[in-house]
Amino acid sequence: MATKGREEFKTYGDIFDKFTIKTLFDLTGTGFFDALESPIALGKEANIFTALKGKERVCVKIYRLETCDFRRMYEYIRTDPRYIELRHHRRKIIFAWTQREFRNLLKAREAGIKCPTPIKYKNNVLVMEFIGEKQAYPLFKDRPPINPKSFFNFMIDEMKKMYKNDIIHGDLSEYNILNVNEKPVIIDFSHATQFKNPEAQMLFGRDIKNICRYFKKLGLKVTEQQIKKKIQN
Predict the structure, then answer these.
(1) What is the tens place of the pLDDT at every residue in 52-103?
(2) FRET label pair with 204: which of 33, 81, 116, 170, CA 20 to 30 Å apart?
(3) Cα(52)–Cα(205) distance, rounded to whole angstroms?
């Protein structure tokens, strides 16, 4: 059921603080969506909902102001050249993290990477394209591909696009890839950064390691060196 009123937000317990409720009302009031619909995922750091905008659906990601591990966020964001001057303040870090994900998604879409289109961010709330039909498409981990080799090749194509456009996802794994009709769509670009980040090579290597590990579990004979070579060629 779609939710609009302040009382109805309480349906989800303590996940909506007063500041977040005001932000959500500001976004509905300016037409970015009409009402939250139903949760896709409720977590300690962020909650993800479908929302209605007319007859269409969008996705609303809400970072939790009180339970986000903002220190961990700061450790990632402080090395990002775009946020080098950011001060160590809880809300400012969470707001910058939200903005960062929006900017990363925008850059990824412009590079032709298959990921959600960002629509709007405000404070700790990010509105983006809903990837699904009536339900969200499943995560890669929940629906392994019928043809792992074909899916792997599509995945390498997406990783090549990221590499050529100075994007390191930074948290790439089976938990951040959707299986959309046997093709990958990459989500959660909150950790993404550029190659001039001093942590770049470590993050790039970790992404490759995670992809290699999972496709090995699916029976493919791949190595991290092979994947890296395919991406960089």
Answers:
(1) 999 999 999 999 988 787 778 878 888 788 877 777 778 888 999 999 999 9
(2) 116
(3) 39
Q: Which of 142, 157, 188, 207 is catalytic?
A: 188
6-129 folds as Phosphorylase Kinase; domain 1 (3.30.200)
How do beta strands 183-186 and 125-129 pair? Answer: unpaired
The CATH superfamily label for domain 148-232 reads: Transferase(Phosphotransferase) domain 1 (1.10.510.10)
Is beta strand 125-129 parallel, antiparallel or unpaired with respect to 56-63? antiparallel
Domain with CATH 3.30.200.20 in the chain: 6-129
Residues of the chain with CATH 1.10.510.10: 148-232
How far apart are the C-alpha atoms of 56 and 123, rounded to whole Å?
Answer: 24
Whole-model pTM: value is 0.90
- Per residue in 127-155, pLDDT (tens digit) is 999 999 989 999 999 999 999 999 999 99
34 is catalytic: no
171 is annotated as an active-site residue: yes
Q: Which of 26, 80, 166, 171 is catalytic?
A: 171
